Amino acid sequence: MAAIPVSRPEDVLLFVVRELEHAGRPVAPGYEVPLDALFEDVAQGDASVELNTHIDAAHYHLGWIKLPHAGRDAQLTAAGASRARQLHLPPADRERAQRAVAGVIAERHEPFSRDLRLIQNNHTRRGTLSSSMFAQDVQAKAREELRTRALAAWRVYEQMLAARAMEVGDAFASELNAAIFGAVDAGSDDVRAAVNRSGLDSNRERSLAEVFDAGRRALQNALDLAVLVPPTTVTNVQSDTHLNVFGPVTSLQTGAGSTAHISTPAPDYAQFRESLQALVDALSMATETNAEAVAAVREIALEAIESSKQPTPNPSKLKATLFGLATLVQTLGSAGQAGTLLKAAATALGFPSA
């Protein structure tokens, strides 16, 4: 397999896992994986030193791999196999998710067809079936549909990842993006046909590109937020355990004799309010066709701003509000800018950027 970029010890671990899968071996201790591919594209100097630093960290400091032959081969440890389950979906799980995604997309065909019939009937009654207004309405519906399908497909993976308490890093997010939108693209011939029938020959290619770009942006925004706010849940800490936790914590249970020292960054509510106010201002200046969604985003954002001014704001509740807003803004043409502002608001609450 081709080498992957290595910028952290987790990338070394993921390389070993993927090599094992490619060779048809279990992701378990006892099997050697050559590391030569990691060094193929690395010249001497700083890049080589950095790669060796990450390999040494995965070996000596984190205990995820063993290096039995002077560092040129690696074996997974039990700790490494456990950590890999938080970072990597096995092929069997990916296949299950892809089947589920295909089913979710197939279920969207009839609602989309029904919406198209309503648009067609409306323009037939008005005598505008051959007009540019008909084409614009169909293409607007198609953009909305691609956003809906992309987010519905992401939710399949999101539920699977949440059930496994998995983290979504940048590299994993790129893999998910390709897999999810590949399935959306493959299952959306009905959208292509509708756009092709609605437009003029001269602008069909551009119209199709705009429709599918809307879905891609919606998916990318959702993945960006997943990278930004990873799951951090620690439970069932046994007695005589001393645990230091840094960063946002969802839940923590300790037994008798246990101690926990928790350090979390203080939320910057002023920055949080500034980011949401910028979102409200941006929507006020943007030209949006979905007035209902704009009104809902504005109302929820302003309520969150007011909530953050309380003497003791609830960061978890504000975070949940951001997730709700993230879903709403996917229906807007300015979703990209809105997503950036929502990520800034999440960072202000102390949820770290990956």
Structural class: mainly alpha
End-to-end Cα distance: 26 Å
From N to C, what is the helix and strand string? HEHHEEHHHHHHHEEHHHH
- Average pLDDT metric: 79
Commentary on this structure:
This protein is mainly alpha-helical. The chain has 4 domains: 9-87; 91-228, no CATH class; 232-263, no CATH class; 269-348. Helices cover 64% and strands 5% of the residues. The protein has helices spanning 9-22, 36-40, 46-61, 78-87, 91-107, 109-126, 132-163, 170-186, 189-198, 204-228, 269-285, 291-307, 315-329, 335-348, and strands spanning 32-34, 65-66, 73-76, 242-246, 259-263. The strands form 2 sheets. The protein has a 3-stranded antiparallel sheet. The chain has a two-stranded parallel ribbon with strand order 4-5. Helix 7 (132-163) packs parallel to helix 10 (204-228). The chain is globular. Residues 232-257 have low confidence and may be disordered.
